[in-house]
Amino acid sequence: MTTEAPVKSPSTARFLSQLDMTAPPLEVRNLHVEFHTTSGEAHAVNGMNFVLSQGETRAILGESGSGKSVTAQAIMGILDSPPAKITHGEILYRGVDLLKLSDEDRRRVRANHIAMIFQDALSALNPVFTVGFQLGELFRKHRGMSRQASKAKAIELLDMVKIPAAKQRVNDFPHQFSGGMRQRVMIAMALALEPEILIADEPTTALDVTVQAQVMGLLSELQREHNMSLILITHDMGVVADVADSISVMYAGRVVEDAPVADIYARPAHPYTKALLESIPRVDLKGQELAVIKGLPPVLTNIPPGCAFHPRCRYAKDNCKVPPEPPHYDVDVNRVAACHYWREVIES
Amino acid sequence: MTDTPSKFGEVVLETKDLRKHYPLTQGIVFKKQVGAVRAVDGVNIQLRRGETLGVVGESGCGKSTLARLLVGLEQPTDGSIMLKGKDLSKVSSRDMRSVRRNIQMVMQDPYTSLNPRMTVGDIIGEPFDIHPEVVPKKGRIARVRELIDLVGLNADHINRYPHQFSGGQRQRIGIARALALNPEIIVADEPVSALDVSIQAQVVNLLERLQDEFGLAYIFIAHDLSVVRHIADRVAVMYLGKVVETGNEDEIYEHTTHPYSQALLSAVPVPDPALRGLRDQIILEGDVPSPANPPSGCRFRTRCWKAQEICAQEEPPLMVRPGSEHPSACHFAEERQVVGAVS
């Protein structure tokens, strides 16, 4: 296949030789990201940890401001810095710390090894170029293909994501596509160079439920076919329950609970996870008040000391209010929770 | 209709064959109309005192246009809106003000629907400038403070500006503004969809508490079917400017008969991993057709798996079909259990 014959420079070869294929596809260790703002340093990510295994779908669940998108951008190396600054941590792709790579190698990792889908497909696509041109660009830049060959690849990709009449649509501009179609184009673009890892940042939030079902179905089908590992960033607990294998729940820039999907829904071990699940309207509780999480998410320039969730937590005791923050307690195999009182939470 | 009149009061709001068509024109000097976007195309709804009518549907189905028609932000092309028995198209412009007082709106986006240059007190008190008879001038500040308190904010923040509040708090300010004139009906257009899950629940609870306290009737427009199920007494499902199915909450969610409602319900992800793969999920093909050129006959037929010839020729009226107790606009209406559709 033509895609298998990229122009390999000596530096690419060196980069590829560093990769340890026995290491997990992605591991994030103690990642810290700060943003410099006029009102002080905003601590967007404060010690993020997770491991993504081969073929796994990991959901990163959190509300706005929890640091989930910033984590994804740090992995991709597309944070705007300044104001953003990675102050700590490692992002290991097959054992290689991405943060230590040269810009040139970083660029090679993007799209070739790790790709990303954004929430708003309309603003992620360039309005003045045809969809075919933008898809083909990947092959021209990364694979050194000709215009004609890259266009043929673009049509192939549009076919793969089930866009009807791909031959004609390849010459259309992004505005000529509907929202669901645009998200398909984004998926096609992300999968073009057959990456190992796909990061999907709220891929269906802007879409209607019926279209969301189409797009999520397509995404998991393609994941299986290409044996990719998927990071799904979302705030929708329904979507997570439908597709994820494991979940990292984020609060104030930190993972508060990390567990296989079935465990977390059945018996949450962190008060925040528990409260989130309870605030979903349920049929059997119609007519009653919805359970609420009192208060507001913390301001990132002024995160409460100790456990960041303590001002809103009904289990909080005095030791939650003072540093250090609660460590990741082992709840079970493959399962951690950052709460001193996880036993109490899981049993209630 | 299959309402239960006993539980709720008299009908406060009713639309009859309500239509809103936006003309599509061609040419600049000699404009001529080449068609129309049929945003709302013959909608009949009824709302009783103290009742919540949920309106659901995908984007472009006309639910926001319906909301704007009800509060008078748009003039209907055809059909009528009866507010407490008065036909709004026949009310003189002088009387219109006092009639309109009874129906207020909560907007979707709390970030753009509050004027950033006005204080919270001014925003909530502004309705009194238009309706000075509601509260005497002297009592206004006290009334505004009372409203702020009512929606669960601190009345001492009366002089703050919108940017000093979070999204959930801003939505509370929007609700306080809607309540200022003691309306009987509130039209809420996606009031919680811009909010985080944990904040959504707070606002939904507030809306329910206010309803109990003041006997408000709500038109609750949303695309989140589980929130609608929680709050609504009756539900109307819209598709391309028409109501395709209506009934009480249980009839729509448990005994749905219209294929579109079934597909919509089945597409909602259920927050329970144990049900993965067990659900009867109907995945629709394609997108919603353009409302400027809707399909003939039944508008859903282009995406419907049941469609037959009759669907292209004859538009199915919204009526009670055999084997079911609530109206559905499908020739082949048939109950289908969409397992665990919305929990």
Question: Can you offer a commentary on this structure?
Answer:
The complex is a heterodimer of chains A (348) and B (343). Chain A has helices spanning 10-18, 68-76, 103-112, 121-124, 131-143, 147-160, 166-169, 179-191, 209-226, 237-243, 261-266, 271-278, 342-347, and strands at residues 26-37, 40-52, 57-61, 84-93, 96-97, 114-117, 197-201, 229-234, 246-251, 254-260, 329-332, 335-337. Residues 1-5 of chain A have low confidence and may be disordered. In chain A, helix 5 (131-143) packs across helix 6 (147-160), helix 6 (147-160) crosses helix 8 (179-191) and helix 8 packs parallel to helix 9. Chain A has 348 residues and is of the alpha/beta class. Chain A contains 13 helices and twelve strands. Chain B has helices spanning 63-70, 93-100, 120-130, 140-150, 167-179, 197-214, 225-231, 249-254, 259-267, 309-313; strands at residues 11-26, 32-43, 46-48, 52-56, 78-83, 86-87, 103-106, 185-189, 217-221, 234-239, 242-248, 319-320, 327-328. In chain B, the strands form three sheets. Chain B has a six-stranded mixed β-sheet, sandwiched between helices. In chain B, strands 1, 2, 3, 5 and 6 form a five-stranded antiparallel β-sheet that branches. In chain B, strands 12-13 form a two-stranded antiparallel sheet. In chain B, strand 10 (234-239) and strand 11 form a beta hairpin. Chain B is globular, with a radius of gyration of 21 Å. The chains are: A alpha/beta (348), B alpha/beta (343). Chain A binds chain B through residues 63-64, 178, 180-181, 208-214, 216-217, 235-242, 244, 261-262, 265-266, 275-277, 279-283, 286, 289-293, 296-297, and chain B through 58-59, 166, 168-169, 196-202, 204-205, 208, 223, 225-227, 229-231, 249, 253, 263-264, 266-276, 281, 283-284, 287, 342-343. Chain A: This is ABC transporter ATP-binding protein. Chain A: Residues 28-277 form the ABC transporter domain. Chain A: One of its GO terms (molecular function) is ATP binding. Chain A: It is found in: Cell membrane.
